[in-house]
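User: Second chain of the day. Same drill as before.
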Amino acid sequence: MQGITRRTDTSFLERTRGKMRTEANEVMYKMAEFLLKKMQENGLISAEEREKITVLNIETFSPELAEVYL
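Assistant: Same format as last time:
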């Protein structure tokens, strides 16, 4: 087929991968926080422990909305 060119824009691929990684980090952060909440509700961890782990989760997952979560 003539006239069809293959897109080899590596910056496009890098941006797409970066966006997918960012979205995955958001999901993993929210899941971790949900589990922390359940652990605290069931008396497995204290409020202070949950706060400390939340800070670590933000450092680990780097959610874009970190300011909103705190």
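The first helix runs from residue 10 to 41.

User: Great, on to the next one.
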